[in-house]
């Protein structure tokens, strides 16, 4: 899981263009020349990542908004964060001293 490997806060990669299209978000990565479509809870996570958040904060928000167990929400959030980090769409926030 993402948090256990490297705790911290995460946000969307700065300057990455994206467009909301109904219930989906299209994220374009000009460097990789790829586009990614986000659906469902991934859209909400993307919105939350406007500012740096820890996976636990994202899980709490998802748990309340989607009425799911916080443990499941955290597992799903960490999985999604790991996926978009591997795609280069995510930044780690600087650690606070």
Verbal overview:
With 97 residues, the protein is an alpha+beta fold. It contains 4 helices and 5 strands. It is globular, with a radius of gyration of 13 Å. The model is unreliable at 1-6 (pLDDT under 50).
The counted number of beta strands is 5
* Order of strands in the sheet with most strands: 2-3-4
Classify the secondary structure makeup into a structural class.
alpha+beta
Shape: globular
Distance between the termini: 24 Å
Layout of strands and helices, then pairs:
Blueprint: H1 2-5, E1 10-12, E2 18-21, E3 24-29, E4 34-38, H2 41-48, H3 55-66, H4 70-86, E5 90-92
Antiparallel strand pairs: 1-5, 2-3, 3-4
